[in-house]
Amino acid sequence: MKYDLILAGGEVLDPAAGFRGVMDIGIAGGKIVAVGPSLPTAEARRTIAVKSRLVTPGLVDIHAHIFVNAHDMAGDTDRFCRASGVTTLCDAGSTGSATFAGLRQVIDREVRTRTRAFVNLSAIGIVGTSRGGELSHFPYADPEGCARTISENPDLAIGVKLRYGPGLVWEYSPEPVKLARKAADMAGGAPMMMHITDSPIPLPELLAHMKPGDIVTHCYHGRAHGIMGQEKQLVLKEVVEAQRHGIIFDCAHGRSHFSFPLIEKALDQGFLPDTISTDLTFTSATNGPVFDLPTTMSKLLHFGMSLDDVVARSTAAPAKILGYEGTVGTLKPGANADIAVFELRDGNFPLRDSDGNTITARRRLIAQLTIKDGRVWYKRPPE
Ligand SMILES: [Zn+2]
């Protein structure tokens, strides 16, 4: 048999690879080996008909949390991911130099989802406490340890995470960003991911310390000093300029970082997120408003982003940042056979942002089938 599996007759969409239209996907040895019309099903051990379903690369969530404390999915990571078409994710700085070994243990023992991680500038990482954030105590800032952790874990660690916000950093100045910059540079030019929600100082003062390839996460928060400054009307020219120069703007929904009024204005002004992510934790996956990555994608579709843009920014774009270009987040032959199959369902779907605003979306992406490394990893039960 030439193929282990053929996904037959789906509406294939992988904008970055240029695949669009009704096609079959042939899989063998855990890899995609053919994409085209009418593959010979007689040469496949198994054929799954996915007619009128949307077939995309397995989704890549560049900002989620999988460690074990108040901000985690831990042992539930696979359950949440496979039921939403996510085959790859990145832990966004749940751990730092002193706790990273614990994250590795969780991943090695409990997580099959393909995983990468940012290392927090704080040695202790994100701890679930109301007693102050991970960098409210200056000595926890550990640029040397952060850089060393990245260098010593090349299979997992990809860059530096900094949460810049009230109660999170020891000083409301660019000093914490400068230390994150130092750690990223010491780690051989690794990217820095910076959380900017409710920043006590204007975003341009932080952007001044970022380089192309660095990531601004929570770019659609509606609180202080976001991409539209305090006026919240127009995307700041420094922000537009930064994106043009290659700084990545990631939306990372989360419980407090996704504002419908701001998104509507930003998209109207042509400011799209470079990557679409969830900031998913156990709580936001279970109680909302995030639920999962297809729901975040559906919200952006509602505000006028095209399906092509939404899919590319949830697959190929984050995969490239995570170092998986050509092997993950793509349906090109030779890539790992990580594939998501969705129903783009019509109806009336009330969806919430992080600030209590509600929309009624007319379309919603619902994951139906998830293939990971060539094997069926999830199939939605009949409703
Ligand atoms: Zn986060």
How would you describe this structure to a colleague?
This protein has helices at residues 77-82, 100-110, 143-152, 175-186, 203-207, 237-244, 260-268, 282-286, 293-302, 307-312, 316-321, and strands at residues 3-14, 19-28, 31-36, 44-49, 54-57, 59-64, 86-96, 114-120, 157-163, 192-195, 215-217, 248-250, 339-352, 358-372, 375-379. It has two domains: 3-56 and 333-346 and 363-379, Urease, subunit C, domain 1 (Roll); 59-321, Alpha-Beta Barrel (TIM Barrel). The strands form two sheets. Strands 1, 2, 3, 4, 5, 13, 14 and 15 form an eight-stranded mixed beta sheet that branches. It has a seven-stranded parallel beta sheet with strand order 6-7-8-9-10-11-12. It is built from eleven helices and 15 strands. The protein is an alpha/beta fold and 383 residues long. Helix 3 (143-152) packs parallel to helix 4. The longest helix is centred in the middle third of the chain and has 12 residues, at 175-186. Helix 3 (143-152) links the parallel strand 8 (114-120) and strand 9 (157-163). The protein starts with a strand and ends with a strand. Helix content is 23%, strand content 30%.
